[in-house]
Amino acid sequence: MNIVECRDIKKTYQQGNVAVVALDGVSLDIKRGGFIAIAGPSGSGKTTLLNIMGGLDSADTGEVVLDGNRLNDMSQSKLADLRLRGVGFIFQAYNLIPVLSALENVEYVMLLQGVPSTDRRNRAMAILDDVGLKDTYHRRPAELSGGQQQRVAVARAIVSDPYIVLADEPTNEKTSPLYFPPTTKWSWILRGGWSCSMTGRWRMTR
What we know:
Blueprint: E1 2-15, E2 18-31, E3 35-40, H1 46-53, E4 61-66, E5 69-70, H2 76-86, E6 87-90, H3 102-113, H4 117-130, H5 146-158, E7 164-167, H6 187-192, E8 195-201
Parallel strand pairs: 3-8, 6-7, 7-8
Antiparallel strand pairs: 1-2, 1-4, 4-5
Helix pairs in contact: 3-4, 3-5
C-alpha cells in the first residue's frame, strides 16, 4: 500500500519576468514503511517536491495523495491538522525555535497535539537520549553545534510517531546521523517503521 502517490506534478515560480520551472510532470509512489532518496543538483526542485508531498506547498497541476487523503481537495486547516498529526519534517535549516531548549523544541509538536505534559516530557527525553543528546536537554539552539541542532530536528520529527518523515538534505552536517557508522544510520527512523523520503545534492568531484 502506498503512503504517498504523486501524479504528473508541475510547479512553476515567477521570479520577476522569468518563469522558473521547478517540477515538470513528476510522478512517484512511496510504499508504506518504504525509504527513498531524491537526488539532484541544487535548484532541481527537490525541496519543492517534498513541500508539496507534505502539504506545505501546492502544485500548479497534478495530484498528490497522502495516506489516502487527496491534498488538492483539502482546506488549509485540514492540511495543517494532517501535517501536525501525520508528517515529520526535517528542514535544511532545522527551523528550531531559538527561545526554546532542545527538550522544549522536541516537546512542542506534542504540545500542539494535546499530549499530557508528563507523557510528552518523558517521550522527548527518551528520543533525545536515543539520538545521543542526553546532556543537552536545557541548551537552546544557539548553544548547540550544527550537528546537535540537526539531531534535535530529527528527534522532533519522529517523537510524535508520524506515518511519514520528509527530510530535506539531512546529510549536510558532518556530525549528522548519516555520518554515523553504517549500522546506526537512520536507525531511529527505520526502527520505528516510518515511511521516509529524503533529498540530497549531487556533488561534482574530480
